[in-house]
Amino acid sequence: xxxxxxxxxxxxxxxxxxxxxxxxxxxxxxxxxxxxxxxxxxxxxxxxxxxxxxxxxxxxxxxxxxxxxxxxxxxxxxxxxxxxxxxxxxxxxxxxxxxxxxxxxxxxxxxxxxxxxxxxxxxxxxxxxxxxxxxxxxxxx
Length: 141
Known about the structure:
Elements: E1 2-3, H1 6-14, E2 20-25, E3 31-36, E4 39-41, E5 44-50, H2 54-61, E6 64-71, E7 77-88, H3 94-106, H4 108-118, E8 123-137
Antiparallel strand pairs: 1-8, 2-3, 2-6, 4-5, 5-8, 6-7, 7-8
């Protein structure tokens, strides 16, 4: 196992559309994990969620999160990211990011459809500023 370079980290996060597992904390202290589609803007990780979802409520309560992105194929790799979130509703960039994330996961031919579906009232644009990143590759070597 070895640490990824910054270039390898960015390629791992952006090269293939992998789903991140987002860990949040409920108001009563119980953990919650949910899958999210994401993109990067520089070092900031972005995703969308409904403000009334468990994720959305948890993020309003506690701004610290953890995410895990992994490659389940040998020789295996993973990124663990801890950070703080900024939530935005009615963000002027919401349609841009919703479309970009939709295209990343569903293909460019469906990007606009997913963008317009997700950039609506009640949705939040979530920006995660990393405070710690662990990125490892060749775990089985």
